[in-house]
């Protein structure tokens, strides 16, 4: 793999502060709060993982962080400056691939620089470097439809990194990959993070993913979403999957997060159903006694 | 060139298709010649029975009156040497192409405009939706009155045939582009124009191709009917009024084999132009080919 250090722009890690943010949809009596008075920090240079039950409003939070939507109340700032819209300093990797199917891998990677008219020699070298980094050199002229799920994810990482964002936001990016590819992607992605220490915000519903990747885990409540707990994951880096599986600390973190998540998931499960609610009440009572 | 031929000859799909066409032609030939090999008395009991049930004998169709494929082939070979037949091809093709190209040139930008601008949609779409259910053929008399020449009138009607389909497809295609593509493009610093050029346009291309192929089919349907209704646009030159007029004048002149020749000619023309479009479509959307 050819290293071209000069081609790499320095990583500038940003810090996002979310203060008292609420977001509701719908008018008047149909109004539904998805996020309510939510506050947290995405610390500079850290990998923050947000985990919560499905349908808890995580994707809404991501749209707010990316600037696709504005919060109903509260403020979101990046390095002190309020977020007013989408920008290359906060790039999102979506659940489903958002690579443009009509562009080759190479052109997908170059999309951002081309859009901003920054396609110079240095950028091309950086693109080449990233293409090697994500192991897709032989696939530069292939369309996304010709790549496997794992390759698509890596191409998307490269397409985001070439814009040198201050914060990378990942919305369940490895969902839908098979178990084996997923674990490979965890190791690959965490190595990538360990190399550049960019601020990363990673959203997932998978507890193993959260514990393996995170410096900090934000455990979210059921809808309307709020932060239930913040767990610092002080496991040493670089991390390997085999080490994590055997680590007691990792298991502690996992248990801690799971107990909170379980309660939230039960609440979410029982929403709107009397029978399910009774079941959950009984379950919680029994669990409390034991 | 050998390899594709060999793979074609060893493909069951090809042979199934070939057998089906050959069997159809044989059955047609047998049916058309049924007078020669089947005694009419054979059907007397059946006819009597149907008559007893209240059906008139005259109401029964008889394939024996349809020209046989062999006689059609002979008639076809005969017209191949006539300028009028080729003139018909040329005229229909010209009308189809002029109407179709105009429909593309106006329909694609119009559809895209409706897709990207709420204002344009608010103004343009209601009128479009009111006019759309009117069949193109209902426009024939009005357009003959409106357009200074009959040639323009026919082209206009073929234009209408393709126009609605193209606009609807472009509009639907542009609207169904995944929101994430726009969000990704916006985040990476794309301007509105850049998003239009590099996201909306390529994202809509597959629908443009589909709309054009469907529109092309409708254009052939419309042109033939329009030529029949309007008398071909050039009565003085006889058979020079397009394939639709070719069929009509063959019917009027009692040359039944030529009717079928005209029908098959239109089938070939429609198929060839659709194939051409599909081929062009695959060429402009290479990412759909490689999957």
Walkthrough of the structure:
The complex is a heterodimer of chains A (290) and B (291). Chain A has helices at residues 58-66, 105-109, 111-115, 121-133, 149-161, 179-196, 207-213, 241-246, 248-270, 274-289; strands spanning 16-25, 32-42, 47-51, 73-78, 81-82, 90-93, 167-171, 199-204, 216-220, 227-232. Chain A is of the alpha/beta class. Chain A has a domain at 5-89 and 165-248: 3-Layer(aba) Sandwich (Rossmann fold). In chain A, helix 7 runs antiparallel to helix 9 and helix 9 runs antiparallel to helix 10. The N and C termini of chain A lie far apart (56 Å). With 291 residues, chain B is mainly alpha-helical. In chain B, helix 6 packs parallel to helix 9, helix 11 packs parallel to helix 12 (242-252) and helix 11 (192-230) runs antiparallel to helix 13. Chain B is globular and about 85 Å long. The chains are: A alpha/beta (290), B mainly alpha (291). Chain A binds chain B through residues 66-68, 85-88, 90-92, 94, 96, 98, 100-103, 111-112, 115-116, 142-146, 159, 163, and chain B through 178, 180-181, 183-191, 194, 198-199, 202-203, 205, 285-288, 290-291.
What's a concise summary of this model?
Chain A is of the alpha/beta class. Chain A is built from ten helices and ten strands.
Weakly predicted, low-confidence segments of chain A: none
What oligomeric state do these chains adopt? heterodimer
Low-confidence stretches of chain B: 233-240
Looking at this structure, what is the CATH superfamily of chain B?
A: MetI-like
- Under CATH, the topology of chain B can be stated as MetI-like fold
Shape of chain A: globular
Mean pLDDT of chain B: 87
Distance between the termini of chain B: 24 Å
Shape of chain B: globular
Percent of residues in beta strands of chain A: 15-25%
Average of per-residue pLDDT values of chain A: 85
Topology order of chain A in helix (H) and strand (E) letters: EEEHEEEHHHHEHEHEEHHH
Helical amount among residues of chain A, as a percent range? 25-40%
Question: What's the SSE pattern of chain B?
Answer: HHHHHHHHHHHHHH
């Amino acid at each position: 793999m050819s290293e071209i250090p000069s081609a790499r722009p320095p990583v500038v890690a940003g810090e996002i502060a979310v203060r008292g943010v609420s977001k509701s949809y719908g008018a008047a009596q149909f109004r539904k709060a998805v996020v309510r008075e939510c506050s947290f920090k995405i610390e500079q240079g850290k990998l923050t993982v947000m985990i919560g039950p499905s349908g808890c409003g995580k994707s809404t939070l991501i749209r707010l962080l990316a600037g696709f939507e504005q919060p109903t109340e509260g403020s979101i700032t990046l390095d002190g400056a309020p977020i007013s819209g989408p920008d290359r300093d906060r790039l999102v990797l979506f659940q489903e691939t958002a690579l443009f199917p009509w562009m080759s891998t190479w052109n997908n990677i170059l999309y951002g620089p081309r859009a901003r008219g920054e396609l110079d020699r240095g950028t091309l070298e950086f693109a080449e470097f990233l293409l090697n980094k994500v192991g897709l050199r032989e696939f530069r002229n292939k369309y996304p439809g010709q790549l496997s799920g794992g390759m698509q994810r890596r191409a998307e990482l490269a397409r985001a990194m070439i814009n040198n964002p201050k914060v990378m936001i990942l919305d369940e990016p490895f969902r839908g990959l098979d178990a084996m590819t997923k674990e490979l992607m965890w190791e690959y992605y965490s190595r990538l993070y360990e190399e550049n220490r960019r601020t990363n915000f990673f959203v997932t519903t998978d507890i193993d993913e959260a514990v393996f990747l995170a410096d900090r885990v934000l455990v979210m409540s059921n809808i309307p979403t709020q932060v239930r707990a913040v767990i610092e994951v002080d496991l040493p880096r670089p991390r390997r999957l085999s080490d994590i599986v055997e680590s007691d600390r990792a298991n502690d973190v996992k248990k801690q997060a799971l107990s909170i998540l379980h309660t939230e998931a039960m609440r979410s499960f029982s929403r709107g159903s009397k029978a399910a609610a009774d079941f959950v009440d009984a379950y919680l009572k029994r669990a409390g006694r034991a | 060139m050998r390899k594709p031929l060999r793979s074609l000859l060893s493909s069951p799909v090809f042979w199934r298709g070939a057998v089906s066409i050959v069997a159809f032609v044989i059955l047609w030939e047998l049916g058309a010649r049924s007078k020669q090999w089947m005694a009419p008395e054979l059907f007397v009991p059946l006819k009597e029975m149907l008559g007893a049930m209240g059906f008139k004998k005259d109401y029964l169709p008889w394939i024996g009156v349809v020209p046989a494929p062999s006689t059609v082939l002979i008639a076809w070979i005969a017209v191949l040497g006539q300028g009028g037949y080729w003139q018909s091809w040329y005229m229909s093709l010209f009308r189809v192409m002029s109407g179709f190209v105009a429909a593309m040139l106006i329909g694609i930008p119009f559809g895209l405009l409706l897709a990207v601008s709420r204002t344009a949609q608010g103004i343009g779409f209601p009128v479009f939706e009111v006019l759309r259910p009117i069949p193109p053929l209902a426009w024939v008399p009005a357009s003959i009155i409106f357009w200074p020449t009959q040639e323009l009138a026919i082209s206009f009607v073929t234009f209408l045939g393709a126009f609605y389909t193209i606009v609807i497809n472009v509009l639907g295609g542009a609207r169904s582009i995944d929101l994430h593509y726009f969000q990704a493009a916006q985040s990476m610093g794309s301007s509105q124009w850049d998003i239009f050029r590099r996201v909306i346009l390529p994202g809509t291309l597959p629908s443009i191709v589909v709309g054009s192929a469907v529109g092309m089919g409708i254009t052939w349907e419309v042109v033939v009917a329009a030529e029949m209704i309007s008398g071909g646009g050039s009565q003085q030159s006889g058979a020079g009024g397009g394939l639709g007029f070719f069929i009509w004048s063959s019917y009027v002149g009692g040359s039944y084999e030529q009717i079928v020749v005209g029908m098959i000619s239109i089938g070939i023309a429609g198929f060839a132009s659709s194939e051409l479009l599909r081929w062009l479509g695959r060429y402009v959307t290479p990412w759909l080919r490689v999957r």
